[in-house]
Amino acid sequence: MTTTRNPGTGQANQGPQPPKRPTRPAGNPPAARRTPPAAGADQPAASRPSTITVGVRKIFAAETGNFFLLLGTTLFLVVFGLVMVLSSSSVESHLESNDFFASFSRQGLFALIGVPVMLFASRMPISFWKRWAWPAIALGVGLQLLVFTPLGWGYGGNQNWIKIAGFTAQPSELLKLALIVWVASVLVSKQHLLADWKHVLLPIGPVAGLAIGLVLVGNDLGTAVIMLSIVLGALFFAGIKLRFLALAVGVLSFFGLVIAFASSSRTERIGAWINGCTPEQYENFCWQPTHGLWALASGGIFGVGLGNSKAKWSWLPEADNDYIFAIIGEELGLIGAIVVLALFIVLALSFVRILRANSDPFARIVTAGVGIWVIGQALVNIAVVLGVLPVLGVPLPLTSAGGTALISTLLAIGVVLSFAREHPAPADGPDPSTRSDRPVEQTPAERSRLAAAQRARPVRERRTS
Predict the structure, then answer these.
(1) Where is this region: Disordered (predicted)?
(2) Residue 53, helix vs strand vs coil
């Protein structure tokens, strides 16, 4: 062992010593000393938070149970929908493109776009959505007008798509969200004048009528019904007098019946739904609903097994879209169908919880509108499969195949998540509005700790300066 002397102190230093673990000082260290050491020195790289971890923490910072309830249920439905799209579309995808995964790959791509869009929307403040209400409705109406240009594309008798470079989009799905945000903005600006029907009908009637009318001209009755329900629901949650609302429902129902029976195909379809199918109608109007019921009934309690559907072998049209619930019932049985219903019930409860926890009238109306859209459309889709309603051609939200529908629904849920973030639900405990203004009495131990902290504050400030 060699011994050397420290020239500064004259003390003897003995050869290389094993590194000693630094001891933590008694007081708080200066701010400069709080910087963690670099990886490889004293701290392993695995123990440091990664950039991805920090980003995720920022995204989900200070969230409440309502936020995560809505987010978790939504993501579960999206993943479940991808599985069912893969199962229900594999046969048709192979027949069309010789690829079993073609439809699933497209839906997966739309999910990869929609989920980040939802998370980005959840970061926006309420003022952002209020500011963009008018531009959103103008953009939505403008896109819907494109379906009547050479860019328009029809399918199944509906002229409600645009096709650009081989990609199709359905502007009416984006128009739903734009209509919700715009109606909420107008109702909030008129909230002190809602007792006068002119302040409700004159600003909302023409614009909402134009938006819904454009969808009706494209022959998409199902989407128009959903949009009309959204507007009526927004009026209800804005506090419109019930007699005005009942009158509006009556008038709109009359015009709805006129429109429904104005088309011979709709009249025959409604007649087959009410009176039952005749042998002449089986090949035309009754094929899809009949085979949908057969698929649902053949599943029994536990289903025939995932991927073992027989109806998807070209027996059931739109098996991956409008009638995906029939495939769920066939492959997963009554148990799977009940699970899907339970998930939408949880989704509805999360909307209600966020609505009740929020005090901003704009956020409450938008939350109600999005909830009516998602839950109402799910109920209509399931009712059509069960034969309770005639065929309307609306998909099952978050589950059916369809890129524009999935992205638009995720964007709408992201808007509601932003309300849950900005106005979190109160924590468990006494209501802050009922608390007394008198100070809370402190125990001697709490007073001593507070005094010690106040004495130590100047010392820490001198050390950091």
Answers:
(1) 1-49, 424-465
(2) helix
User: Does 146 reside within a domain?
Assistant: yes
- Residues 6 or more apart in contact with residue 436 via CB below 8 angstroms: none
> What's the CA gap between 358 and 148, in Å, rounded?
40
Whose tokens are 């987010």? That residue is: 71
336 vs 29, residue with greater confidence = 336
pLDDT band for position 240 (50/70/90)?
confident
CA distance 223 to 229: 10
HSE at residue 78, side-chain half, CA atoms within 13 A, is 25
pLDDT at position 1 over 60: no
Q: Is 149 left (phi over 0), alpha (psi -120 to 50) or beta?
A: beta
Q: Which spans in 146-277 are helix H?
A: 171-189, 198-217, 221-238, 242-260, 264-275
271 burial class (0-12, 13-18, 19+ CB within 10 angstroms)? middle
Compute the C-alpha angle 106/112/115, nearest 5°: 130
Distance CA 204, CA 33 (A): 61
In-domain check, residue 18: no
Average pLDDT along the chain: 82
pLDDT at position 32, please?
A: 45
Q: What's the pLDDT tens digit per position in 75-123?
A: 999 999 999 999 999 999 989 888 889 999 999 999 999 999 999 999 9
| Cα distances (Å, whole numbers) of residue 175 to 129, 230, 255, 343, 464 | 15, 12, 22, 26, 56
DSSP alpha helices (H): ranges in 316-442?
324-357, 361-386, 403-422
Q: Do residues 143 and 175 lie in contact, with contact meaning Cβ atoms separated by under 8 Å?
A: yes
Q: How far is CA 182 from CA 133, 199, 409, in A?
A: 5, 15, 17
Domain that holds residue 348: 62-422
Residue 447, domain member (yes or no): no
Q: What is the DSSP letter of 20?
A: P
CB 316 within 8 Å of CB 292? yes
What backbone torsions phi and psi does residue 321 show, to the nearest 5 degrees?
-125, -95
Tokens found for residue 34: 């709080």
| Residue for token pair 């419109």 | 240
Q: How distant, in Å, are the alpha carbons of 176, 196, 205, 211, 407 from that of 251?
A: 22, 18, 13, 18, 33
Instruction: Say if CB 200 and CB 235 are below 8 A apart.
Output: yes
The H or E element that residue 164 is part of is strand 158-164
Within a domain: 431: no
Predicted TM-score (pTM) of the model is: 0.78
Q: How many domains does the chain have?
A: 1
What are the pLDDT digits (tens) for 49-81? 555 554 555 555 546 789 999 999 999 999 999
